[in-house]
Queue: 2 jobs
Job 1
Amino acid sequence: MLRFTLKRAVLMVFMLLGLLAITFTISHIAPSDPAALAAGPDANVEMIERYRVEYGLDRPVYEQFAIYLGRLLTGNWGKSIHTTRQVWDDLVEYFPNTVELVVFSIMIAIVLGVPLGVIAAVYQNRPIDHVIRILTVTGVAMPMFWLGLMAQLYFALHLGWFPLGGRIDMMTDPPGDITHLLMIDSLLRGEFGTFLEALHHIVLPAVALCFPALASIIRVNRAEMLETLKQDYIVNARAQGLTTFRIVAIYALKNAMLPTMAMIGLRFGWMLGGTVLVETVFDWPGIGLYAVQAAISSDFEPIMGATIVLGFFFMMTNLLIDIIYGILDPRVRDQV
Amino acid sequence: MNQLIRMGFAASMMAACLVTTAVPADAFERRDGEKILVTAQRQAVPTMDPSVKYDASTRTMQQAMYDALLKYVDTPPKVVPWLAKSFDVSDDGLTYTFHLVDNAKFHNGDPLDAEAVRWSFERTLTIGKGPAWMLNSFLKAENIKVVDATTVTFTLDRPFAPFTSFLPWWYIMNPKQVMANEKDGDLGQAWLIENEAGSGPYMLKRVEQGTLYELERFDGYWKGFQGPLGGIIYKLIRESSAQRAALMRGEADLVTGLSPDEFDQISKAKGIVTSTKPALTAFGIKFNTQGEKTSDINLRKAVAYAFDYEGLIKIYNGRAVLQTSPFTDSILGKIEVPNIPRQDIAKAKEYLAKSKYPGGGIELEYVYVQGLEEERLMGLILIDSLQELNITVKMVPLTWANMVARGSKVETSPDMIAIFATPVSIDPDAVAIQYHPSSQGAYYGVHYLDDATLNEMIETARFTTKWEERKPIYEEIQKRIVDLQPEIFGMMRERRIAYRDWLKGYEYSPVRMTEEVDFYPLYIE
């Protein structure tokens, strides 16, 4: 198991490097001129040149890449040409917001998705299965932001149950940063009012974000459960007179969960990088918004910073899933 | 993102039936018993540093925290004394002497004196970013001299008439405070991103990156206040529909980013005041006058006469007016140019017959900002209008960055390109210079116009100091630009601002950018 983990970790370093090289190339061959954009529409040639020199954009691309990597190794993530802020400071501020949203969202998806998948399988082709199917098809097909907008209009504007957007009320001072995760920090500092406020704010965006994941979890879990329930050992268990609950919830579910786990891991990774639409609708200051803004203004260093963070966490999630797979399924462990 | 906005907009229309009765608006926000104004804005503030940036969101914050020597107010805009209570100009037009008010002080209590003025101008010129271009080609830092605590003189390298029209955008910073926070010789640039050292009516209270910026009233403001307001929250709400919802719920008191339809909806709501005012921004479809096909002036004229101008107005539900000159209405010396093209198919065909393409049969490229619905609709109007001439239009949506990049070289600059341009001042030179070769490559210079007669007039006018002498030259300049037809002269859309009726004192000036607000006169009753 240890060898397996190590091997994957080494591979990850190379994958990350590859990802960096690709992102760097793509962002640099786009025809736009970040120095001119940053200097503003009226800037004269010398002013643009000043930006170009300051940010090293006057050098050949391969040299820029080498300089970038060198600086990265010393912990310098560069600064944004557009805002002149340090990329690292931005990442520390924006990424935890996205993590909080995605974790909360995937939790909703798991808590609802797994039981619904089981129910759909157990009651295959009965009315409840059809209802769940409609839900999953809708979940997959419905654009997240549309769902978000609708939820915002109905639950926030019409009913007034939830806030329109943001992470906490604008008049509330956020708790001092410890982990940079607002909900955790407010708990650590004993500010329960702020915690409840943050919880209140996260519900709508998290629900809007969880739908596609929820739908996939239900579909995969249902399919796997159906498969598992046909297995000989289940038939045997039934013959032994075990209760349906015991058979389904313990024997079948454990085995059916493997592909579902993989799906959850994959979805989690996707969601980290795919929150921009929900973040826009609910003004959630997350990394998706940050990265898109950087891409629009051809702001290379924030693009690279966001790519590294997102790429790293995507790979970490996959590694984690592989390890859990190994724990749940001895065959995987033995192959390695 | 714009795609999202468009679809979101469609979604909100569908939901309009859903939201028939919105939750009644709450009262305004308060902090420590004082009323707080909340404004919902789309654009984040990248940096607060007055020497580094001056875009709409940045300037909104800057002019609340800083003062300049002069200030723009009113419609039509005029420049009024501010930190400088008066100024004199020498007979040769080279030396400007400013007399400062004596009661202005910075937020930390330091007096605002002539040295602070000199240092602030020097800092912006040295850093060479943001507004530096406005003055750096005819003003050297060493030619700014402190005479006494309230007098400062600027000696220009050569007479430059628009000089004072730029000064409202040069803010005065506290040298001691900034230099105390200098790091590695950066003249305080890193510190001023999220801090301020101004003398303006409001002080920066907190910055929550990507979420909000909060200002608090500076009680010692030298000019005093018109009404009660404890502070201001500049809150980022990026979706038009969410902005509307925030205004309806009373969570925001003032919004500026509503789409035309959203604006129409909200203007009927109770308790909401809407204002539509003409702006300094011009919209035109620029030709590449050195392009393979569009270098033919007869073709350009043909296209300009075939274009359906009324269609432009319809896109804005009537909240726009056609340009009657290359200069928009608030620009000094603007005249109504008599022969500016309007749709006239017969004339269009006449010009086409004289061109290299008498029978049409060509395709012209139209480049616009990806996802910007209004510009896409303008493209459709173009397709429709040019059918009459047997000319087809290829619509090419690009991101702003890529569009600017294509326009930056004459070889790649497209046949036609949709451009909104807001001049930074009301001096006619701010627009005229856009048609001078020195502007080529900038987004408003994608026409690559280079006409000797015009160039000479522009150069003469900008270095002439007496308005009586400049005025007739600018009349000729406007006529000449229209004759050369470097673009389809389009329209001036009105700014759409919506606010709660408890908000008082709102003052508008066309010189402000699309989402820019001057907080100073605002208060809540």
Note: Chain B touches chain A through 66 residues (CB under 8 Å).
Job 2
Amino acid sequence: MSAPAPSRRALLWARRRAAWGEFARTYAQNRAGLFGLAALAAAALTALCAPLFIDAGELAVTGGPGGRFEPPSGEFWLGTDAFGRSVLAMVLWGARISLTVGFLAAFVSVALGTVIGIIAGHFGGWPSDVLMRVTDWFLVLPSLVVAVALAAVLERSTLTIIVAIGVTAWPATARVVRAQTLSVEARPFIERARALGGGHLHVMKRHVLPNVMPVVLAQTTLLVAEAIVMESTLSFLGLGDPSTISWGGILQDARSAGAISSGIWWYMVPPGLAIALVALSFTLCGRALEGVFNPRLRERR
Amino acid sequence: MTAELQRSAPQDGPEGAADGARAQGEPLLSASGLSVEFTGRGGRGTARAVDGVDLDLHAGEILALVGESGCGKTTLARTLLGLERPTAGRVLFEGRPLAYGARALKGYRHRVQLVQQDPAGSLNPRHTVYDAVAEGLRIHEGATADEERRVADALSRAGLRPPERFYLRYPHELSGGQRQRVVIAGALVLEPEALVADEPVASLDASVRGEILRLLLDLRADLGLSALVVTHDLGMAWNIADRVAVMYLGRVVEAGPVEEVLAEPRHPYTQALMSVLPESGAQEPQVLAGEPPDPTRIPGGCRFHARCPVLASGEAERAGVADACRTQDPGVLSGSGPARVACHYAALGRAGD
């Protein structure tokens, strides 16, 4: 590609920019989606920048700068915990683990669900039956129990939590992707690809995947919310990595310190609110994306 | 229809019909005793979509396959491409039976290409024109250095000039005729020997139809491309085809050179189809009664007898073939050669000539 190549690439980029502009405009029409996006950006920024304004040493059990259970004050806006650590600092720091686990676990489960869904939808027949029965089996298993069992059996680490969530959360994605695959496979361009000599892999990769991607993206944002809640649940049940600070872990510490009966609300409420807020933002973003990717809206373009 | 149905076990293969075939060299692509059956879910009824067809496509020839909707034209076309497996009979390419292994099929699909009915649906909405045309090249040859030249070449052959202007368009930005040209370019880029076009202009405007048909004729003249054109439009068959095969309920009922078959149709079915063409100049349009029968319940005897105007008017009775019409299958027509017809009454007329 010599002479015309640069202009072709430039054109392609111009087209992509235009497509993104269109996408952004459609998304911006959804107020709730914008709010979710803003909240997420704030949470992500906090997680990334936390080490800049929080001294990790002050988060160690032995390094708490304040007294035991100090109520909110000018110095500690959200009070302190049993070891004199600032609850605000802990909640901000906890965003790091919660978001990491949320994203990675959602990625694992979406990848698994997408691959299984596309294979089941593409091949049909008995492979589809087998895969869908396995999916159903995972779907009816209480995912929390499975995750607890997995987290208990495997060694205690953040990776274990990610695997436990990823392995239990994929069936819904597989179902949705399979349904979408079936509808894409019925369209004539799949037959054209086959008549051109394209094999299974070609059809799945070049034709089915790009056309199920919108659904997958929307599904991912919804799953991140689920994964964050699940991570908090596992940590709250004491199955998280004890050496890290996460929102579920803070709640667990608060419970075992008797915060409920002693009325130490500042220890319980902030991490709970943080979980609710981030999960809500992801859900709002997912709903907004689903609206943008709605096939009927897209066909009109 | 076909998506709902499953393939059934092979049934009785049809007997080959002996007919004086004009020596024309080996056909490029042919069907021999081809049958395709679909079984309804739960084994309810077997639909004989294609029920014993012999058909030859010679190099550099345009063959039109005409018939009403639901007569099995599209199934036959798909079977010729290996997209559907025959329950009986064979597809032959250059005299060799088509192999259904993945590698053999891929090689075959390098040489025979499909053009579908609906150009809007046959292009992936997320692929640019360039990607759509280059797809075949990438499948068969991977990334090649001269890819862009060959894509440009195919696009301009298909009448999209200058080709660079179309590279980055998406299908939804093109008109119906342009889309069909992109599909044709995507087929041409592999330099195929034969093209199977399933109703290539059915969904296009009358003004664009002529252009696409012109294009098919030009391609035949320039590249020596053979084409099987499936259509329900006899006027179109008349305009572009060398030979025509008329299909009714899964079987070819009349076939031969287009001038002979369409100028002097001998099968009552072809006569009825011709009589409703405005330009045919027929005195009285003859509208056939009823729908074509359900392919799960093909009538015995001549499959057309229930709707046959010749039988209904009592003319067959007078000629003494009415019993044969109701009870005897007129048999399968051979794939090539002079005009032939599967009709007891018409066979009588020929004998009396």
Note: DSSP finds twelve helices and no strands in chain A.
